[in-house]
Write a structure and sequence with these properties.
The structure is a homodimer.
Chain A lengths: L14 H25 L2 H8 L3 H7 L3 H19 L9 H18 L1 H12 L6 H24 L8 H17 L1 H7 L8 H18 L16
Helix pairs in contact in A: 1-2, 1-4, 1-6, 2-3, 5-8, 5-10, 6-8, 8-10
Chain B binds a DNA duplex through α1 and α3.
Chain lengths: 226, 226
Amino acid sequence: MNECTAETTDNSPGRIRQLNEARIMQAAEQVFADAGFRGATTAAIAERAGLPKANVHYYFRTKSELYRAVLDNILKLWLDALHDITADDDPREALTHYIEAKVELSRSQPEASRVFANELIRGAPRLKRYLSNELRDWIDARVPVIQAWIAQGKIAPIDPYFLFFNIWAMTQTYADFQSQCAAVLGRGDKLKPEDYDRASAEIVTTVMRALGLETAPTGARHGGDD
Amino acid sequence: MNECTAETTDNSPGRIRQLNEARIMQAAEQVFADAGFRGATTAAIAERAGLPKANVHYYFRTKSELYRAVLDNILKLWLDALHDITADDDPREALTHYIEAKVELSRSQPEASRVFANELIRGAPRLKRYLSNELRDWIDARVPVIQAWIAQGKIAPIDPYFLFFNIWAMTQTYADFQSQCAAVLGRGDKLKPEDYDRASAEIVTTVMRALGLETAPTGARHGGDD
DNA sequence: TGGTAACCTGACCAAACGGTCAAGAAGTTT
DNA sequence: AAACTTCTTGACCGTTTGGTCAGGTTACCA
């Protein structure tokens, strides 16, 4: 398939290592998502990667080390995928963009989101530092942007922290709790790609209205066909 | 402390059983919340309950059986705590009440929420039936209520299913991902009781605005004190 | 007061766990 | 093709796991 992402695809010294580490981490991500850290077994990860267990331990000495690598990979992935939000941006455009990108991550990388969710549920023992430093810095830098928008009358007054909490909650629920949404919608196990489009649109509408940026959705204001 | 909840507190035949089962289930809820099903150990549950491991197995033959009991208890708790939503209700009142009750559950029973979240993340292997039957029936009965409100022009048009998904997401994030919110707000490990009040108010505002039921929060419409 | 049912628990077990290791296979460099 | 590094893996080890059980203690009822 598309094994060739970039940089040093063919030979080169660390070729085999690079390939196998990626294979193991991909398998580990799925197993950690399904079972959590303590519930995941190295044997299950090895089997999913199609390798003997001892080989997994050759590349990652301990389960903790592998888990850390998976977590770091997820944080890197998210950082790369999400554009920033600055005071110069148009609120409607910037937040719509942000929400759509987050839902797209829920669709394309649900396992990553579930590993992260698993960690948060347990009190984030291995992410405390990240949450209290990088993430907090990120949001502390974004809060003045929201406040500036409010002061300029561009959006309705709202608590910036809770705005982000709620956006995160809504965008990630379709990855973390996919099973619940799918069951209620009668989809079976997984949501359809279209469901994510609908989720994205509904979250954008909800947030835009909450900020007083009504988009006048389908024409008529209230009431519709029954 | 307040061990005496109700019904048959003093003697009666199944007195000891009732007491110990409750004690074990309470301990189990915490351990399952912290570690997930596979990660939780019967030894840890026993220790938390202050009983020998063998005693736990006297009341609950297997870990699965205990887990099921905890899950059933949670569903019962939620059913009891949440009032219904009917077409006769005023949308603003009914949904405000619903949101506030859900956030109150996140504050008072965070472990229950986290056990449930853990189960959903793993694909809900033991809750599929509940999700596809009871929960789906509940929401399928509520969707016409929302649609009626829309048709009557009482609220702005919105997808009823995704409205509930988003409300669930926002109200539960403060229990399930408490560690994230607390870290970002600089609260340490846990949110303060006031944080939940704020969360509740912000979610209500967000949903009300999304439904065109602006509550005119603090007086001024836009812009505020700098 | 005696009998019966419910409750308690230390000691134990097979299976599964994370992790190690030595010995060999494959790849690379000179 | 020799010398060396990297990779591979079956077999193994100490520990932890969910669960059992026999034999005891306590509570209840006649």
